[in-house]
Structures are given as structure tokens and as C-alpha cells.
Amino acid sequence: MPSSFFIPVLLAGMIITGSSNSLWSKWQDMQCVENCDDPNQAHHVLYEQPVWQTLQMFLGEMLCFLPVIYTWLRTRRQSAPVHLPADADEDAHTSNKLSPPTQELRGWKILLLWLPAACDLTGTTLMNVGLLYTPVSIYQMTRGALVLFVGVLSVIFLHRRLWLYQWISLITVMAGVSLVGYSGSLIKDAVKETLQLLGVPIADSPAPIEEPEVTKVLVGVFFILFAQIFTATQFVVEEKIMSRYSVAPLVAVGYEGLFGFLTILLFVPILAQPSISSRSPFFDLPRGWYQMIYTPSVLWSGVAIAFSIALFNYFGLSVTRHVSATARSLTDTCRTLSIWVISLGLGWEKLLFPISLLQVLGFSLLVYGTFLFNNLVNPPSIIRPPSSPTLVEGDEEEAQGLLESSQQVDETAALPADLGQSGYDVMPADTHVHARGVTSNDG
């Protein structure tokens, strides 16, 4: 068992590194890279390169190879077989778990991980575009809609069964996301009215970047929501692969980072064509390269983002191994809250009533819906599913089928946390995440 001091360190590390991912990315978006000496701020060019930011994320995932290489070198010196650290603590439900697949993912089959890497590339790039238009707190909260898309795709492609309370939880999540997006769209007008009441000229006011126009915020929310479809597809594909092959999650994350990195490099000559790069600064990769290289703040923040993503995967693995998947899910929620508090402290956002109350309400609905879906809170009794075969009278076979489907729902509810943008709930390959059901009370 880890010491009582070690567990808080892991939880704090997960919150700090997870929060820094989004905060560093938003800070990077705010950096001036061209015409910075012009006294007219309207002529300043900010760093708007979502593809390069996605590349930073894949570099961070590739860093997950480091502990794997270290373990391999250490065991090679000892002339012992190579094994990644396994969880010594066995879950109380180990006897009921399905045995992990025995066929290892090796050889050309490793290329199967290119499919989720492609989904990760698309989804992350779209989210980076959305972050350009939205406050960082709204960006992080809107990403909570992932549970909705994963739930729906799991029913369609993995043939999972969801109880009524889980469908209601998905609707609750969608309502929370809608309130968060709506509150963000009201920020601009509220800020103008506040400045006018204070007698501050709007043209001369130090308006922060987190006060975009209504249409921009709504466009940003749309990009983030649309990205969740690709991220959810990534999770479903990964689960399909992991159900057939055995692979250490840190190794899988590293390969996804490698394949995503190579994919971007393959597209660099195409995106560098003037006919494409001239249409949008988002895909002007040569320009983005020079902006990054000749702007130290952008360059070093990119290094910080890569390392924070790698460390977030490590802390997420450690929390799942030494504490529980439930603790990881709760910690991920605290991460969203910490991002909001930090952005308020940095002056990137303002508490504007009653708009902030709408944001709090939306965030509350989002958290409650996610917790309800993951069985972290008990559903209301009126929609609570049967938890005992005695509820099905006179039909033992149907009761047994009900219990089996309940186990499938539990597995469906064990959704990966946002993992430094990785779909894997990074944990030892021989450990099976089992989300607690209603009778035994992780993104």
C-alpha cells in the first residue's frame, strides 16, 4: 500500500498537470507573434496554430515511452523478462472480472492504433480551434459533453445497454453544456454594460481576451462539441482494440503519439501549399513554425504543454492503480473547477451576475449528469434499475440475463478521463476498470 503522503501527491499532481494543459494552451493563444511593436493592438497578430498545438500534444504522448524504455533497460540489466509494473492490489470483484485478452498487440497489428490516433488528431485540432474563441473554463466544461457521445456510440457500435437513469444523465449533461455555452455567449454584452456604468470608454478599456463576441463563442462551442464526436469514436475504437489484444496502456498512448506525429508530418507538404495556407492562418504551418521558433514564450510554453501531458498520463495511471478509477473521475472534475478559479484569478474571466450563476448551474448539471452516468451517485428511486433477480418473478433465466446486462452497463460507464487528450484510461494491462454499480457504490 502506498503511504498516506504519496496518495495526496498523486492527486495534486493530476490536478496540477491536467489544469496546466488547458491553461498553457490558452496562454499560448494569447501571445503576440507579429506586429507586436505596433501601438495599435488591433494590428497585433496572436498565435493561432491549432495544428502545431496538436503536434505538441502528440509529442507529450510520445514521452510516455520514457518510463517504458527505462523499465526495459532496467530489466535487461537484471536478465529478467520485461514487465511493466503491475497493480499489487486486487479488487474485491476480481473473481467476477473477465480475463484480459491473451493475444499481444505486436507486429503489423500495432498499426491498428493509427485509427484512434487519426481520431485524436482531428478531435484535438478542432478543440484547439474552439479554444481560440472561448474562455478556457467554458472550453473545459464543454468537453464534458464527451460522456454523451461515448454513451451513444457505445450503444450503436459496442451494443451496450443503458438504463433509463443513464439516458436521463446524458440529457442532464447536454442541458449543462447548453447552459455553459449560453452563459459564455452573454459575456460580451455584459462586459460592455459594466464598463459603461463605470464610465470607462470601451475603446480604451483593457478588455481581456476572454471577452469574445457572441457569435465567436457559439462557433467555438460548436467546434468543441463537434470534436467530441471524434474523441468518442477514438474511445470506442480503442476499447474495441483493447478487448481483442493485450497492450500496456502507456505503450499504446506512446504509439498513438508517434502515429499522430507522423500523420501531421505527412500532411505538412500539403498544408504548406499557398492555395491552402492562404485561406486560413490555422493551417499555415510554415508561418506557424516561424512564429513558434522566433517567439520564445510560444516555444517554451509548447515544451511545458508536452511535458504536462506526459506527466498527466503518469499521474492518471498512478491514481487509477493506487487509489481507484472513481478517484480519478472525481479528480478530473476538480481539474475543471481549478481551471475556472485560476482563470478568474489571472483576470482572463470575470464574475458577472447573473451570467456567472448560469455558468455555475450548467457546471453543476454537467457534473451531476456525469456522476450519475458513472454510478458515482445513486439515481432517484423512481428510475433506479432492478438490482436483484428477485424483482423478476418466476423467470430465473431472464433475471440472470438482467444481471449480465447490468455488468455490461457497469463496463460502459467506466469512461476514460481526459487524459491529456488521450482516450486510454492508462492503467496496467492486466487490470480491468470496473465502475461501481448501484449495489456497490471512473473522464
TrEMBL record:
Subcellular location: Membrane
Pfam families listed in its UniProt record: UAA (PF08449)
Listed GO biological process terms: transmembrane transport
Extent of the signal sequence: 1-20
Keywords: Membrane, Signal, Sugar transport, Transmembrane, Transmembrane helix, Transport
UniProt xrefs under InterPro entries: EmrE-like, SCL35B1-4/HUT1, UCP036436
UniProt main location, coarse: membrane
Membrane topology field: Multi-pass membrane protein
Transmembrane segments: 111-132, 138-158, 165-187, 217-237, 249-272, 292-315, 351-373
An example Gene Ontology CC term for this record: membrane
The protein's name: EamA domain-containing protein
Organism in which the protein naturally occurs: Serpula lacrymans var. lacrymans (strain S7.3)
